[in-house]
Amino acid sequence: MTAAQVTIADRGTTNDSDTNEADWWRQAVVYQIYPRSFADANGDGIGDLAGIMSKVDYLAGLGIDAVWLSPFYPSALADGGYDVDDYRQVDPRIGTLDEFVDLVERLHRVGIRVFVDIVPNHSSNRHPWFREALAAAPGSPERARYVFRRGSGEQGEIPPSDWTAAFGGSTWEPVGDGWYYFHLFAPEQPDWNWDNDEVREDFLTTLRFWADRGVDGFRVDVAMGLAKGFGSDHPATLPTQAELAEIPIGPDHPYFDRDDVDEIYAGWREVFNQYDPPRVAVAELWSEPSDRKARYATPQSLGQAFYFDVMHAGWSATRVRRVVDMVLGWADQSGSSSTWVLSNHDVVRHASRLGLPDVDADDPWALAERDRRWLLSGGVTPSENIAVGLDRARALSVFLMGLPGSLYLYQGEELGLPEVADLDASARQDPVFFRSPGHNVGRDGCRVPLPWTASGPSFGFGSAGSHLPQPAWFGDYAVERQEADPNSTLALYRRALQLRRELQGPQRLTWVESGSARSRVLHFVRPGGWHVLTNFADHRLTWGQLGLVQPSADRILLATTELTQSAVPAHTTAWWR
Ligand code: TEU
Ligand code: CA
Question: What is the pLDDT of residues 10-19, one digit of tens each?
């Protein structure tokens, strides 16, 4: 290090034993597959397990440690499969259980582990137990598996509360006898009653079912929503929506992040630990920054948690720095590892997002709000924003790849794929679009099937169409094209992930101050002298301005744009040793 570099923080988890087999997940790269949109082997326009099977070599070539499969269970697709009819079966449109077992074996053979998605907050309204609940009388054991409440008024015509659901509309759906069931999301997604022993037992059966079939880990949907504070039939009153909005999520909230969720996951942990190696899990948590999130990541609970905070930091050295420190702190606090995510099936793809004008606000939801408005206004993107977005996406992704901890990638981000922001209303599928008309166009734009070839039907997704229409420009991003281009985003991901594997060490980093450019640059060193530096400025910065002596060419490991003129260009991450 030169004299200009000052170590201002040194962080790490107490557990550096990543070489232990049971700890494989701590710094794993997990690639999310949205099965319906990955690859379609039988040409019906819907991605399937056989399609994933046909891409095992592609997945192995990426340099990932695991895949996470979004729901592939039988479903009416009222919410893209997050409305599960049967937790222990494969949707016949996607494949069979035998194919699933086969796929897990094939992936294991090439060193890729498998996560499946568990959706424990709600079932679908076609689940046999929900059908039984509807057929049974109020107060029956069948209804006790879900969250039923009687309405007020003579006939129960007034819903139990005026709460609004996450996708719009009321959280209460009447069933015709003066009673209502509670749904946090769409009416097709009735919430389970987690006070019910049969429900608890059934989920343990589901976890064992998949673990017995070789599944290594579970991604837990809406992990903070399970415990409800209003399970009994007639509490005096429920807060109004306006009052609810003032209750911070946590112990006093009626349904988000209550303390009693811990006990549920302690039971799951017992099941995980009955396997060798122990099964792992990651909690999906949407909430503001809070130390409470680390609870889900302890060894007594799910073991790891998604921290989406970096997604909400946008393109800003100071905000990203703050989030990185915060998340490393939570990793320490929980004895787990940090998790880094820029994209998933619920958000605008980050290659598009990072090209939008910044909103410099402390509100963690400010950027999500900007994205919502952008989509609503038609998602028009000037071509220079597309280029900037891609440069920033490459830089930020490679920055995160350098951080200690585990990284979750979303299918297509390795292609630098932008959002399909202008889908026609007639093509949309997301309940968010239908339930919040004129307010939110929904999440279909990040779920459009992948382009594998530059031309041909559905750009190689399948032999025919695709269940969400692909735009003409999709071919430009095709895997085929990027495999032939050493400067492609795909080539960058492959190279960076391979290097990451070689350079990976203990979960520790040391921040380095970057001269006068500090507010526009992040620079850290990992054990072994692995330097990671990102220039967030929209102009180049010379090594002198960075307070650094230019590393000789043979020390440079990687750069997300070409390093020229003794400078790090705008929107660029460089690694050197
Ligand atoms: O998402 C949880 C969730 O809270 C979402 O409403 C999230 O806030 C939103 O999608 C952000 O745009 C999970 C799944 O990831 C999502 O796909 C499902 O729709 C949802 O649960 C219900 O199962
Ligand atoms: Ca198919």
Answer: 444 444 445 6
